[in-house]
Write a structure and sequence with these properties.
2 copies of one chain form a homodimer. By secondary structure, chain A is of the alpha/beta class. Chain A is 43% helix and 15% strand. In chain A, strand 7, helix 9 and strand 8 form a beta-alpha-beta unit.
């Protein structure tokens, strides 16, 4: 069968190894828009200046902020800065800037490096810190060259530097960071990360300032969850657009498949520990029959049974219309937003901590249960007893390093499926309870009830997470991150510290801002201890994006109105889209196009 | 926060419901190539004529074929037909043709309908059969209009007609099919399906011929598994290209993510019950550190332990190079290709059948085990006892409707993960067994061994299947299916029956063929009964595609050489690719471009 051409194809297959697929090679050449203020008269990239706006960021606990960040406050006063085009940028040279990735990967990290490299130019040096904050502590740096930037531009992942989740907290760690800064004569550290990492950046900035070391610390807002966002100053963090578009492609495909095979309900758990923004965006992109939004469930104080009842009702109403398939979206963090589950977990953590040794000594699971149940409140005991066996077992046996229940490991979608199956069969055995003209009952004829009894429920469960974090960035994320890099580099060159780079007005050329990190940090009590953190931006049930979902979801539940946004396109008419929730909540005219400046191919000439 | 534009975006979001995302709307307008022989002098689509080639398809059991399909044989003589351009196509009118989808969805089904509609033209009628073979039996038909074709063209899924898996076998079912044909005055039935469905098509063709009913029965080769293929006459079935490209996108993303987060091994099970073609194609697209190929494992008579040892060795060699992450591909059907597992399942099925009532009566799993173990061979008993608890429980308790072990439900990726974890910890406790200079041992210094002992194994498991079946077809699948529709319609208009539409020479304009179905069917013994089926096309370990994988996999195992083929592009420089295994095995010069004729937008004027 081997023809004359096989040798050629063979060579090509081998050559594509190591990130040189035809797609990857073509992607590297894709142009990136650049806001006009970053361009010199002859069209070259140059740093911007910053001027103070009249906006002061004051978080909930402003007096506490002043206590914790006295030096930063004295310098920045929590004022938002806005970038302006520099008429004649000073010829800065010899600056040494290092950058690290922190936490889970998000699409566009490599373009942050490209932006930094482009704005620092040939006269300053950019260093990469290997494997995240741990590398900063260890001083594991290497110089990033122009040719390596050409190699990574527009590619996904954080693999050029690696990442980790170390939190810099102890005195010793801060001293090690200082050591790294001094030894490497760094003028700037760029921390690419989420809320925890940007909180870290604020503390490092304050620490270096206190130590009298002139080194800018600048944060860059990254998280696929979209919960690093600051109203109209920073509509979203980078990585959200790409991740939600990967998930929307797959959910759209599953909806199409469900309608084709006409037998499955696909339960899709979507990554996102806290905010349900990913789920809301994917729902607006794909119109599934159900999408659970954690924030709404907490606000309405819904129980697990309420949620199960709602899903079973939708499934039954669809059956009455002859539809026995669909897609149900479940946010990963759901369990912690169900008030009664939250209570149960809190009580369990308390019992497990107080009687740790006793419980450990009991030989069987049954013994442990006999010991734990009397120590819970009656409501929590009843709830725990009603959970599927594996979930109960997991709650009792699996603990994290602090001895707490591993909430993130709870297989929420399987918990729901099991409880829904039970309720669906109950509905068949006791139809009079569920069908009728009473409140909350479903109105159906005896024939319809008989038909429904004959229908079986087939389910499939999915978890979408890792496959969306390291995809090649969408055109939007590619531009957003490149511009964040240009902004962060400009902030270092301008000698600013304790800021987070930010961009807004994605629909009209982009507006470049710097947000004072200290102004974003609030004081929270967590397990009885004060924790200073950047507040997460959650789904607001009063926001335009939630309202549009709320107004339409009943139709999407009762009919098959899904749409498939397709795979992310990097060429062609649909390749310039924005996240729908951003477009809605920011009041843009359109989600089909963004405008972040003039498109140009990155070169280093 | 609601701005002036939100109303506009809101309207757009609502308008996209019901398959009108910007992507879906743009996709409908994408041009499709049409082979020149289907074009009239003035560029309109017209049916082709067919001439006999000198190729006769003779399967393994030719005499049996002659017995089973005497009428079809008398008519077709198992000769392959080739399409030729019709100089002056006869003006055929009033023909009534019906089409159905059978089995799991595959991308491009809707374009088959578009091709049929285009070639039948305004003077003949096309009917859709609802919900697969069941709809043919029940006579559930509706006329497909031009406007509905404009709505579904280039969209994924089978949802316009639906599908099911009914096999038409009984006398009564065949009579019901005749009834449908006669009542609806059908001149042709097009069956879009896999090996079973095309076998069905052959039997229906023979039956109708025997009954003296002039109605063409034509099959169309569909299956994402790629196992409906006939050497150089039909290099692949439709849907394979799209499904493997969706899976390759996700595997590429996971590889990128693994290299970024630097801690996980992702075990990815890929759909495909029998052939490992999907796994081979995805491996050539992405270069994972390991890809298991079932056909090779069967050929080499590898045991479960051999496979586990191999994976642990690769993981350890990577650790020696400082790599502690990667992607491992596992074909869904693997278990049945491991000879010892196959034996165990066979023995278990035998015991479960013979002692069904005894086993059912035993109250606990332990009792059942005590009963079953002495009745297995020692080897099988030992193997079963070494399996993880849940797998053993599943083997004993879960049966299909025939009382057999549900092989397809075995969570192979989890079985492997569990056994690998065990072996990795054994390697830490007994390093002398695994490290050293002996055969099969790993050569490492004492320091390296200590380092390896400190590394933990984190795994994630994934199953990729449903998300790839109903995606929008790739440019290749969109063209392939449209042309298959044109071919099948032409065969009906030419009064041919018992053929499968086929296309080959994807690299040079396309060559249109018709393969005699009876010539593809062989006689197999399954559970002691003769079964007449189309032989599945499996991975051949002598094929160029397997050889290139074999030559390169060691490098891909020892270094991180993955590549990410990206999401399927429908516009731009990478949107015209072919499956790599097809390009290799057919001896094409290239996998970056196909040539199936002149691109044109479908219109019905």
């Amino acid at each position: 069968m081997e023809g004359k051409g096989a040798a050629g194809v063979k060579t090509k297959v081998v050559q594509t190894a190591g990130k040189h697929s035809p797609f990857e090679d073509a992607s590297r050449g894709l142009p990136i828009p650049v806001c006009r203020i970053f361009l010199s008269d002859d069209g070259k990239i140059q740093p911007v200046d910053f001027k103070e706006t009249d906006v002061k960021l004051e978080c909930r606990d402003y007096t506490r902020t002043m206590q914790v960040f006295p030096r930063t406050m004295a310098r920045n006063n929590c004022i938002v800065l806005e970038a302006v085009r520099s008429a004649s940028p000073p010829d800065i040279e010899g600056k040494r800037v290092a950058v690290l990735f922190s936490g889970g990967p998000a699409a566009g990290g490599h373009n942050v490096l490209a932006g930094l490299k482009a704005v620092l130019g040939k006269k300053n040096s950019l260093f990469g810190i290997r494997k995240g904050p741990k590398g900063l502590i260890k001083g594991d740096l290497f110089e990033i060259t122009e040719s390596s930037v050409q190699e990574i531009i527009n590619t996904g992942g954080f693999d050029f530097l690696g990442t980790d989740r170390t939190k810099i907290k102890s005195r010793e760690q801060f001293e090690q960071v200082r050591e790294t800064v001094v030894r490497n004569k760094l003028d700037g550290i760029i921390i690419v990360g989420g809320d925890d990492s940007n909180t870290n950046a604020a503390f490092i900035a304050e620490y270096l300032e206190t130590e009298g070391i002139e080194c800018s610390v600048i944060g860059i807002p990254k998280t696929i969850d979209g919960d690093m966002a600051v109203g109209s100053y920073l509509p979203i963090s980078f990585g959200f657009d790409t991740a939600t578009k990967v998930y929307s492609e797959l959910v759209g495909n599953l909806a199409q498949d469900a309608a084709s095979a006409v037998k499955y309900y696909h339960f899709v758990k979507l990554m996102g520990r806290t905010a349900s923004k990913i789920t809301l965006e994917v729902a607006l992109q794909t119109k599934p029959c159900i999408a659970l939004i954690s924030e709404e469930i907490a606000e309405k104080n819904m129980s697990l049974d309420d949620i199960v009842d709602h899903i079973v009702k939708v499934i039954t109403l669809r059956r009455l219309k002859g539809i026995n398939h669909g897609v149900i979206l479940v946010p990963e963090g759901l369990v912690e937003f169900i008030p009664e589950m939250r209570r149960l977990i809190k009580e369990l953590n308390h019992v497990l901590a107080e009687y740790e040794a006793d419980i450990r000594d009991l030989p069987t699971l049954k013994n442990k249960q006999e010991f734990i149940y009397p120590r819970l409140s009656a409501q929590s005991a009843q709830l725990m007893a009603s959970l599927p066996e594996e979930i109960e077992e997991m709650l009792i046996l699996d603990r994290d390093e602090h001895g707490n229940v591993k909430v993130s490991q709870i297989e929420t979608e399987k918990l729901l499926i099991e409880k829904i199956r039970y309720k669906v069969s109950e509905l068949k055995r006791h139809p009079h309870k569920y069908f009728g003209k009473g409140e909350g009952q479903i109105d159906a004829t005896p024939e319809e009830i008989e038909t429904i009894k004959g229908i079986s429920l087939s389910t499939q469960s999915h978890f979408l997470g890792y496959e969306g974090r390291s995809a090649k960035p969408t055109a939007f994320d590619a531009a957003f991150t490149f511009l964040l890099g240009l902004t962060a580099g400009s902030l270092v060159l301008a000698g600013k510290t304790g800021y987070m780079a930010a961009i807004t007005d994605f629909d009209k050329g982009g507006r470049i801002l710097a947000l004072p990190l200290a102004g974003l940090i609030t004081s929270e009590l967590r397990k009885g201890k004060e924790e200073l953190v950047i507040e997460k931006s959650l789904v607001e049930t009063t926001s335009p994006s939630f309202k549009i979902f709320e107004e339409n979801r009943e139709r999407w539940a009762e009919e098959d109105l899904f749409s498939n946004p397709g795979p992310i396109q990097h060429w062609g008419p649909t390749s310039r889209q924005l996240p729908i929730i951003v477009s809605l909540d920011q009041g843009y005219d359109d989600f089909l196009h963004f405008d972040l400046g003039e498109e140009r191919k990155l070169t280093f000439d």
